[in-house]
Amino acid sequence: MNVLYESNIRSLPLISRGKVRDIYSIDESKLLIVTTDRLSAFDVILNNPIPGKGIVLNKMTEFWLEKFANILPNHSTNIKPEDVVSKDELDQVKDRAVVVKRLRPIMVEAVARGYLIGSGWLEYQKSGSVCGVKLPKGLLKASKLDSAIFTPAAKAEVGMHDENVEFDYVIQLVGSELARRIRDITVDLYSRASQFALEKGIIIADTKFEFGIDSNGDLNLMDEVLTPDSSRFWPIDDYHVGANPPSFDKQFIRDWLESQDWDKKAPSPDLPMEIIRKTSDKYNEALSRLL
């Protein structure tokens, strides 16, 4: 398998390297995004790649974008990545890169939650609400909510934590009309995806979307969509209220790192091969179930 920790596309100018994706400029209207096999935990990019992870994330995003194409425009173009790089760089983009429209990003993580887990569960325990959304009393960890809620987060720089915010923050950022549009489409897309995934034996506990504005002023879906990196995927057979279910993502690695003598700052400990293999298997299982 072609493992890619960091791309090196010399035929295009590099714009940035994120936790997982490397972004290159094609021209004033288009970008090349390469999804690597890097993995981050606790906001630290780990030393070891997860073989094939980038391909899984890329295929899954393409699947959901096509599924939602009639609901909302997205960043996709009809240009193949192989057509914008040199021949000796083809192995770096095969199955893991996309050519996308340049969009003006909206600097907020649009999070939808259908279950009470993670930072939402911690906040609920303290205040009885999540991002200003009041919830019923007596809910337990991993409780299913009566309906999905919008719980945005302010985007942070690489290596920093995103910060949960209330809906008013989004209104102040983009205005009330666009804020309502983002909230409504986030909950709608999550609800549609959740129903589809349930039929495949997967619970999508929560997910985050990212949006941008195109040259016509229209809202577009961008970045990754409903992947194990941006969502909590739980196998329905292992779901129990009151417990943290196993997931189709990097939970194996988080659990292992928690057991190490590590201060959660770079550099990270090297991962054992067994942990790498199990994590890769989980990503691939999620892809095979959904597709």
UniProtKB/TrEMBL annotation:
SUPFAM superfamilies per UniProt: SAICAR synthase-like
Name of the protein? Phosphoribosylaminoimidazole-succinocarboxamide synthase
Pfam families membership: SAICAR_synt
Report the top EC class in one word.
ligase
Q: InterPro entries this protein is in? A: SAICAR_synt/ADE2_N, SAICAR_synth, SAICAR_synthetase_CS
Q: Which family does it belong to?
A: Belongs to the SAICAR synthetase family.
Say which species the protein is native to.
Answer: Candidatus Kinetoplastidibacterium blastocrithidiae TCC012E
Q: In which pathway does it act?
A: Purine metabolism; IMP biosynthesis via de novo pathway; 5-amino-1-(5-phospho-D-ribosyl)imidazole-4-carboxamide from 5-amino-1-(5-phospho-D-ribosyl)imidazole-4-carboxylate: step 1/2
Q: Which reaction does it catalyse?
A: 5-amino-1-(5-phospho-D-ribosyl)imidazole-4-carboxylate + L-aspartate + ATP = (2S)-2-[5-amino-1-(5-phospho-beta-D-ribosyl)imidazole-4-carboxamido]succinate + ADP + phosphate + 2 H(+)
Domain called SAICAR synthetase/ADE2 N-terminal: residue spans: 15-267
* An example Gene Ontology biological process: 'de novo' IMP biosynthetic process
